[in-house]
Amino acid sequence: MLVTLPVVLPMLAAAICIAAWGRPRLHAAVAVIASAVCFALAVALLFHVRANGIQSVDMGGWSAPFGITLVADLLGAIMLVLGTGMGLAACIYSTAAADLGRVTFGHYPLMLCLNAAISGSFLAGDLFNLYVWFELMLLSSFVLLTLGGERAQIEGAIKYVTLNLLSSVLFLSTVGLVYATTGSLNMADLAIQLDAIEDPAFTTAIGLPLLVAFSIKAAVFPVFFWLPSSYHTPPPVVSALFAGLLTKVGVYAIIRATTLMFDQEWALLADGILLIAGLTMVSGVFGAIVQNDMRRILSFHIVSQIGYMLMGLGIALEVLQSAEDPAAAAPQAAVIALGGAIFYIIHHIIAKTNLFLAAGAVHKLTGTCDLKAVSGLSRTHPILAGLFLISALALAGIPILSGFWAKLALVRGGLEAETHGIVAVSLVVSIMTLYSMAKIWVNVFWGEPTHPDRDALPRLGPAILGPMAALAIANILIGVGAAPVYDLAEATALQLFDQQEYIEAVLGEQALDAATEPNEPAGQTP
Amino acid sequence: MTLLFAVSVGVLFAAGAYMLMRRSIVKLVIGLSLLGHAANLLIYAAARPLKGRAPLIEPGQTVPPPPFSDPLPAALVLTAIVIGFSIVAYTIVLLKRAFQEVGTDDLTAYTSTER
Prior knowledge:
By secondary structure, chain A is mostly helical.
C-alpha cells in the first residue's frame, strides 16, 4: 500500500480535478491536500524502508520478473520524499503565484500528473515501466512549460521537446536491445542476466545509449543546452519544480543503472564519467557568469551541480574498478563518494527549488528577474532576502549549511580515491558558484532600492514565504544535524553496492541460488 | 529477414537524424516521428517475429509448441506507439503555435531564449 499510494493518489487527484474542470479553487484545494498526503506517505515509506529493508510490490498479482514491479529501496524512498516534498511546496506556492487563466487551463492537474510520474520513476522496478514514467513526466512537463503560449515559452519548449524526445528514442532502443539480449526487463533480473554475459564489450555497447539517454535528461555536458534555453521561460513556480526535480530524475536513473544493471560495464568508463563530470561543472559555471537574469544564472548552475553528483558516482566507479576483489564489500572510499553524491542530491533539490521560488517572488514583486532592473530588495523585503541568502550560501557550500557537508563528503571521497584532478576542479567551481550567488545578492538585494515603496508592490503572503521558509529551514537543519542525514546517505550507498539485497527483495531468495548455477537466459525463444 | 529489419531500423534512424538537422520545424517533427518508428521496429525485431508461430497453448499443455514468437515485445511496441502518437500530436500543435508566434518555420530564427 505504502509503495503504490504515492503514485496512485496524485493520479486520482488529477482525475478529480479534470472532473471538476473550471473550478480553480477546488483544483488548488485538491492538489494541496493530495500532495500533502503523498509527502506524509513518502516520509512514512522512508522510515519503513530504513527499518525493514527494501519493499517490493508486484502489480496485478503477476510475480516478478514477469509483471510490473514497484520497488522502494533507500535511494528510491529518499528521492520520493524529496519529490513529493517539492511537489507540495510548489502546489502551496501556486495558490498565490499562479494566475487564474493558468489555473483554469489545468495547472494543478498537470502538476499532479508530473508528481505522479516523478514518484513512479523513483519506484519503477522495470526498465520499460521507467520509460513509461519518463514519457508521462515529459508530456506533463511539456504542457506545463508551454501553458500560456508566449513566444519565449514556445521557443524554449521546442528545444526542450526535441532533445528530450531524442533521449526517449535512445532509451526505447536500449529497452529493445536489452530485451533481445536477455529476454527480461525487470531490473533485478537484469542485474543477474547481464552479469552472466561473458563479453563485456557487448553489454557495454548495449548500455551506452542508455547512459547517453539518461545524460540528456540529467543535462550533462555536452548535451545540457536544452536546459538553460528553456527553464527561464515558464512561470517561476513551474521552473522551480522543474529545476528541483526533473534533471535529478535523470541522475537517479544513471545511479540506478550503474549500481544495479551495468555495474561492471560502466565501471570501465569511470575515467570518462569523471572527465564529463568536470566538464559539466565547468561549462555550467562559466555559462552562468555571463548571464544577467536571475533564473538564467540559476539554470546554468543546475548544469554545474549535476557535475558534482556525477563526480561522486565517477569516484565510486573508479575505486570499484581498481579494487582487487570485485566480489568483496565495496571499499570505504567508494561508499563515501557515492554517499556524498546522494547527500548532494538531497541538499541540491531543496536549495535549488528554494532559489527558483525566491526568483519567482522577485518576479512577482517587480515583474522581472533582470539583475540590472532590480536592486535594494533587502531594505523592503528582509524576510525574502534572508530566505534567498540561506539557500544561496548553502548552494555555494558555506559551512554549517547543507551544501558544505555535501561537498566535504565528495572531496573526502575524491582524496581517498586519489582522484585529485576532479577534486581541484570541484573546489574552483565552488568558489565561482559563490561568485554567482554574490552577484545576484549584490544586484538584486543590496544597493539603493529601485522599488522603495513597499506598499505599492504586490504583497508576499504566507503561501509564498511559507514553502520558502520550510525549504530554507531544511537547508539549515540538514547542515546543523548533518550526521543522521549523512548516515542515511551512506546506508543508501551501501545498499546500492549490495545488489543481492535488491535482487532478493524483488525476486525472492531462490533467484540468487539459481543464478550461481550456469543458467539459460529466461524467456528466450528458440 | 532479420537483415531486412536491421536495414530498415538503420535507414529509419539515419533518415530521422537527417531530418532533425534540417532548418525547417516541419522536418523536425517528421524526423522525431521517424526516430520513434525506428525504436519501435527495433523492439519488435527483438521478438524474432518471423521465425516462430503465434504463442497459442494447445488444450492440455502448459507451454506453446515451439517454435513460437515472443508476444511481449508486441505489447511493449503498442504502448510505445500510443505514447509516440500523443507526443507527435503535441509537437505538431506546438510547432503550429511556434509558427504563429515567430512567423517563420526557419529554426535559425528561434533564438530569442538564447540572448
